[in-house]
Amino acid sequence: MKSMTSRERVKLAINHKEPDRVPIDFGAMRSTGIATIAYNTLRKKLGITRGLARMYDFQQQLAYPEKEIREMFHIDTIDAGQAFLRKGSNWREWELNDGSKCLIPKYLDIEIDKEGTVLLKDKSNTVLGKKPKTSLYVDQSYWVYGNLPKIPDSFKNEDLAKHMWAVPSPPWHLDVFDDEQYRLFIKNIKELHDNTDYAIMLAVGCNLFEMGTFLRRMDNFLMDIYSDKEGTKRLIDKLVEGYMKFLDRVINGVGKYVDILQFGDDLGGQGGSFMSPDVFKDIFAPRYKKMWDFVHSSSDCKIFLHSCGSVYELIPYLIDAGLDILNPVQTTTTNMEPEKIKKEFGEHITFWGGGCNTRDVLPVKTPEEVREDVKMRIDVFANGGGFIFNQIHNILANIPPENVIAMFESAYEYGKY
């Protein structure tokens, strides 16, 4: 088979056809990437000394994979956010927990208190997240509706943006409803499309279940979906109303330049989904369908949903709602074994991830054992297309660079059809 471009390769795989090789992703969204500490050790191992890593995701401390490493590992995808903040003046230096350095966006509002806790704030100076001195991540510390006895009867738009994950990563430092910033948004993504052949993923979020937990806290919202279904629907309908306007603006601007729109909602835990299939079908599935039908009718963009955990029971409803791609394919959870989900759902959705065990293999095994794990998973997932290689979740700070190298090298080696 003749060689093809990265964009062609990814599109073919998503359409359940076998390209020349399995497409490889590294950092096209905020759960397929690498912690900046691990990225710095990887850069050192590879002999890359020029400049500093750009840590674009402060909450999870994730770095953008740079062009040199993307080419080295035969990466086929890119985060649309990499089209932005290209000038050095948009960034400032930051010191990580291990003493190594990186760059972070200047627009972030960050303070360090006397105990060394990093405080992540919004424009109103509310502390939305905290990163203790010894922690590797930022934890949410403010829930706008968290202390209310129930979901309120009405919602202020400013309240719905008052949570840690609303502190943006690029390109959402721009307001696409501001005409000048909208033009910049379109221009930069168009340039990325025209000047590269990567498959471009744009994170739109549009979270439903997770947004309830961001606003109400996990404990409250898990009770809300059973004890206050009408309130839950009222909240989610308010969210979807805003999301539909946002999606319309995004698609009208860059729908022809973006290949994949990334939605997000962690719907499961280690042992199963956070709700029964009946509750999911009643509350969440119709609202996903409304958004995803609009995307499909208005563009050629594919729908990518990031959901951690065991979502086996929910996959049929996600497929019916219009899902194209599931990530991270957490095969270490109940009923999510590679052979099982490929056999049952592989004709209907693309699996983006699941290519290396990030819990039991990548952190602790030898490079050769990493290679064996990658090969086994490609053998299962790649048949007939419908598979984009990525590890199960982000490469964390303590992952040995030798294992990262082994993983990507074996994905390229074993992924050839």
Q: Can you put this structure into words, describing what you see?
A:
With 417 residues, this protein is α/β, with parallel strands linked by helices. 38% of the residues lie in helices and 14% in strands. The strands form 4 sheets. A 7-stranded parallel beta sheet has the order 4-11-12-13-14-15-16. Helix 11 links the parallel strand 14 (325-327) and strand 15 (350-352). It is globular, with a radius of gyration of 21 Å. The model has no long low-confidence stretch (mean pLDDT 97).
Sheet with the most strands: spatial strand order: 4-11-12-13-14-15-16
Q: Roughly what percent helix?
A: 25-40%
Oligomerization category of the chains in this entry:
single chain
Give the class from helix and strand content and strand pairing: alpha/beta
Order of helices and strands: HEHEEHEEEEEEEHHEHHHEHEHEHEHEH
Beta-strand portion reads 5-15%
Number of strands: 16
Radius of gyration: 21 Å
With helices defined by DSSP (H or I, 4 residues minimum), what is the helix count? 13
Q: Which spans of ≥5 residues are poorly predicted at pLDDT below 50?
A: none
Q: Termini separation (Å)?
A: 9 Å
Largest sheet: 7 strands, parallel
**Overall geometry:** globular
Mean pLDDT: 97
